[in-house]
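The pair is quoted verbatim as follows:
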Amino acid sequence: MSTVQQRQAKLEPLLRASPIIAIVTIDDVAHAAPLAQALIDGGVISIEVTLRTPAALGAIEAIRAKVPEACVAAGTVLTPDDVKSAERAGSLFFVSPGASPKLNEAREQCDVPWLPGSASASEAMSLFERGYRLQKFFPAEPAGGVDFLRSLAAPLPKIKFCPTGGIRAQTAANYLELPNVICIGGSWLSPANMLRDKDWKGITALARAASAR
C-alpha cells in the first residue's frame, strides 16, 4: 500500500464520522468553539473551517483545544503554505477545491490526510491514479449535481465523493442516497446572520434537522 493509500485509509473513518460536514467561514476566533459545540449538539461532528479569513487558523486551534470531540478540517487549502499552516493548527484532514502539481507535492510530504477536489471524470481519474479514491466533488451543483455524480458511479466504481458547493437542506438527501457518495459538505448549517447574532441554539436546530435525514 502506498503512502497516499495509507493516508486515504486514515481519511475514510473521518469522512464517515458524520454524513454531513459543516462548512464554516469564521471571522471571529471567539465564535469557533461555541459554533463547533452547537453543531455537535445537533449531531454534526465534522466541521470544515475554510481558510478564507484571518481568523481561520486560530479557529481550528480553538476547536481542537476546547471541543476535542469535533472532527475538524481545514478547507480551501490552496498552497504549500496553507498545508504547513493548517498542519500546525491541528487540522485532522485537509480539503481542497482542486489539485495542482505544487499542492500535490506539498501534501504528499505531509502526514495529514487530504481530500482533493475534482469536477470531471478526467480529474477524478487523474487523482485516482495517484491513489486518491476519496475525493471532493466541487462545485457540486454547477458541475452537474446529483445526475452527474450518478453517471460516474458505474464507470468509476472505486471512487467515493464528498460533494460540496450549492447543496441545500432541501437537496442534501438526494446526494446522500447515491452509492458513490461517502458524505456531503454544506454551508447552510452556519448562516452568517446566525454567527453574527451568536444564535447557537438556531445552529443546533439546523444541525439536528440535517442529522435526522
The first strand starts at residue 20 and ends at 24. The two ends are 35 Å apart (CA to CA).
